[in-house]
Amino acid sequence: MYNLMIVDDEYLIREGLRNYIDWASLDVQVMLCCSNGIEAMEAMNNQIPDVVLCDISMPHMDGIELLRQCRKLKINCEFIFISSYAEFRYAQEAVKYGAFDYILKPIEPDALFSCMQRCVQTIAERQKYRLLPESNREMIEDLLHGALTGSVQAEKSLIRFLARKK
Questions:
Q1: 20 to 30 A from 106, CA-CA: which of 78, 91, 135, 146?
Q2: Which sign, positive or negative, has the C-alpha torsion 88, 89, 95, 100?
Q3: Largest alpha-carbon pair distance within the chain?
Q4: How far apart are CA 33 and CA 40, in angstroms?
Q5: What's the half-sphere exposure (Cβ side, CA atoms, 13 Å) at 24?
Q6: Would you call the peptide bond into 49 cis, given omega within 30 degrees of 0 as the criterion?
Q7: Is the pLDDT of residue 34 over 90?
Q8: CB-neighbour burial class of residue 87 (10 A; exposed 0-12, middle 13-18, buried 19+)
Q9: Contact 81/43 with Cβ under 8 angstroms?
């Protein structure tokens, strides 16, 4: 089960998002709803969510600043921003700090469901990678590094990795 934190300064939006989607069908539970970034940061002292569904424009600490603070503190969770602002600079800032996605209000249920589905799949893949034995991770990293840099060792790394899988 993946933990979701909803952060929005509008009560009706928070409650709507809490009940908007069949979260259980995505293997997601809403762990907490917060009204601004400061409240969300304080809550993260007790429990780190897997996903933060967050408004961008909020009083006290906006969503972009919340994301910045999380990255600075190496809090590893995915951010999906929701906003009524269609301005490119908000999306650009969100991407700059590694947001998973940016959805405009009014939110369409299918779009939010699809986005959360992709996000959960991304988290699951990352967790599978972390569960690999250290030697396999090192080989995969060597292989990827070689492929990206055009190294002659990439082919040897791939052959070595595939031989260990048998």
A1: 78
A2: negative
A3: 58
A4: 8
A5: 1
A6: no
A7: yes
A8: exposed
A9: no
Amino acid, res. 88:
F
Kindly report, residue by residue over 42-94, the tens digit of the pLDDT. Answer: 999 999 999 999 999 899 999 999 999 999 999 999 999 998 877 777 878 88
Given a contact cutoff of 8 angstroms between Cβ atoms, the answer to whether 41 and 69 are in contact is yes
Question: Which residues have CB under 8 Å from 164's CB, separation 6+?
Answer: 136, 139
- Beta strands in 15-118, from DSSP E residues, in sequence order: 28-34, 51-55, 78-83, 101-104
Beta bridge partners of 2: 28
The amino acid present at 7, given as its one-letter code, is: V
Which residue spans within 24-100 are E strands per DSSP? 28-34, 51-55, 78-83
Residue 125 carries which side chain, given as an amino acid letter? E
